[in-house]
Structure formats: C-alpha cells, structure tokens
TrEMBL record:
Membrane topology recorded in Swiss-Prot or TrEMBL: Multi-pass membrane protein
GO terms for MF: sugar transmembrane transporter activity
TM region positions: 6-25, 46-65, 71-93, 102-121, 133-153, 165-186, 192-214
Protein's cellular compartments: Cell membrane; Endomembrane system
Protein name: Bidirectional sugar transporter SWEET
Length: 236
C-alpha cells in the first residue's frame, strides 16, 4: 500500500497538470483580443493579481523557505511566465490609460517582492519562521487572485451576460482548488489548504453564474463591436 508521501507526490503531479491547464485556459480570450486588436471589455485584474500570487508561491517553495515543495515551485514558475505573457498582450492592445494602470501595478508588485524577500532572508533565519511569514502572505495574495474575478462576476450579474467571464478559467480554478486542497491535507499544510479551499469555492460560484446567465448572453456582441470600430476607422 502506497505511503502518504507517495500519494501526496502523485496528487501534486496531478495538481501541476491541472494548474498547467488553468494557466493556459485563458488562451481563447487572448486569441479574441489579438484578432480584434482590442481588449474590449475583458479585465486585466485577474492576470495582474496572479503574477504576484505566483511570485510569492515560487519564493514559498524555495528549500530555504519551505523544504520539500518542488512541485509548488515548478507550476508557479510556469504560471509566472505565462501570466506575464498575458499581461503583455493586454498592454499591447490597451489604451494608454489602461497601460498606465498596468505599469503602476507591476512596479508596486516588484517593490513588494523585493521588500518581502529582503525581510525574509535578513530577519528570519529558520525555515519554520520563513514558512510562516511567506505562507501568510501567500494566503492573502492567493485569496486576492481567487477573488479578483469579482469585478467580472459583478458585471455578469449586472448585464446578465457571461460573455466576458471565461468558462474554462472558472472550471480550471475550481478543479485546481480541489486538487491542491487534497494535496495540503495529505501532509497538513494550512498555508496551501486555506487559499485553495477558498479557490474551489470561488470557481464553483463562477460556474454557477455561468450556468445561470448562459441563456441570456448575446454571443455575437464582439462581432458587432469590431464591425462598428472598423466602420468608424473607415469613415475617419
């Protein structure tokens, strides 16, 4: 019979696979953005929040912070790279007002990470204390990442349309939260358990909203917006 560590490793690998697809799930959204040459009504908030979240988790998984967390580092390292790519696309196809907000947000995140790493490495000298500090910070930013779609969810309820709430991202969030919560329970890690438990709940709420407002969504809205935009350009 497999021991707990083996089972945990297997679950962690499954979590990596699901998280891999979670990070890739917004792909169709960015294909639309590139084709339309506009971010339309899509929000950059979840992707900017995820950049900081991944950066904190990569640091958390370092052996000098929280040993035996290689699987956390690998998937969040990939996530950090892909989220930067997504935000780059947003930056290219946004107006200057939105670009300014993106730049400010990224600068704040960089400053925060520099301060966090400096404090951790200079003031804390054991993995237990370092794990506690970074774990608490990771919980906070994981919750921010999972609640960042609230702006989109509010828009869904107001417009009765799920046009701008990516279904696959919501589904992947739900599955990702469930698997990593199981991973945390196998070798009790409260810092992984709390945010992923909340993440699975957030994903579930988004899926319920998708089911509730799918029938009232105007799926041809983008095409009309693009046609109107092209018409204005032609008349100019």
């Amino acid at each position: 019979m497999a021991d707990t560590n083996t089972i945990r490793t297997v679950v962690g690998i499954i979590g990596n696979v699901i998280s891999f697809f979670l990070f890739l799930s917004p792909g169709p959204t960015f294909v639309k953005i590139v084709k339309a040459k506009s971010v339309m009504e899509f929000k950059v908030d979840p992707y900017v929040a995820t950049i900081l979240n991944c950066a904190v988790w990569v640091f958390y998984g370092m052996p000098f912070v929280h040993p035996d967390s290689v699987l956390i580092v690998t998937i969040n390292g990939f996530g950090l790279a892909i989220e930067l790519f997504y935000v780059g696309i947003f930056f290219i196809y946004s107006d200057w007002a939105k670009r300014r907000k993106i730049i400010i947000a990224l600068i704040i995140e960089i400053i925060f990470m520099v301060i966090l790493i400096s404090i951790t490495l200079t003031c804390l000298h054991g993995t237990k204390d370092r794990s506690m500090l970074i774990g608490i910070v990771a919980i906070v930013f994981n919750i921010i990442m999972y609640t960042s779609p609230l702006t989109v969810m509010k828009k869904v309820i107001t417009t009765k349309s799920v046009k701008y709430m990516p279904f696959y991202l919501s589904l992947a969030n739900f599955a990702n939260g469930i698997v990593w919560a199981i991973y945390a329970l196998l070798k009790f890690d409260i810092y992984v358990l709390i945010p992923n438990g909340l993440g699975s709940l957030s994903g579930l709420v988004q899926l319920l909203l998708f089911a509730a407002f799918y029938s009232t969504t105007n799926w041809n809205e983008d095409e009309k917006e693009v046609e109107l935009s092209e018409s204005k350009k032609a008349d100019a």
